[in-house]
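Cross-posting from the chemistry board since nobody answered there.

I work mostly on the small-molecule side, so proteins are not my area. We synthesized fe (ii) ion and want a rough idea of how it might sit in this target. Sequence and SMILES are below. Is it possible to get a predicted 3D structure of the two together?
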Amino acid sequence: MALIEWGTDLSVEVPAFDEQHKKLIDLLNQLHDAMLQRRGREVMGPLLDELLSYTNYHFAAEERAFDRFQYPECAKHMEEHRKLLATAQELKAKHDAGSLAITVEVMDFLKKWVAEHIRKCDKLYTAFFADKAVEG
Ligand SMILES: [Fe+2]
Ligand SMILES: [Fe+2]
């Protein structure tokens, strides 16, 4: 059972970024499946690493487009990226230290972490990028 399903309600109408959001959601769903199957740290650890590095990659891709096209809201958006990354790094560090188990609550938190950013922050750039050729 998927934790999040990508649907048009999550579309930012920039194809390259919709694809990257789908990949992020796929990684969260993999982590969720691993949790349901009670997989150990040897499975969860690498999945969390992949989630972190893909998030880094995706944020950098958005920020390159902000820079290239001079997106006016970029400062606020980049600040949100920094906060999200810091939270994810904190989770990973706690997991590595053995003080955090991936539970339903953690998954619920990560679901909001991704979905709310797409809905409340990323969607604000839809109109701005509508007439621009954004690469991933
Ligand atoms: Fe995004
Ligand atoms: Fe973003």
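Reply from a structural biologist on the board:
Welcome over. Reading the output above for you: The mean pLDDT is 95. The CA atoms of residues 52 and 89 lie 7 Å apart. Happy to explain the token format if needed.
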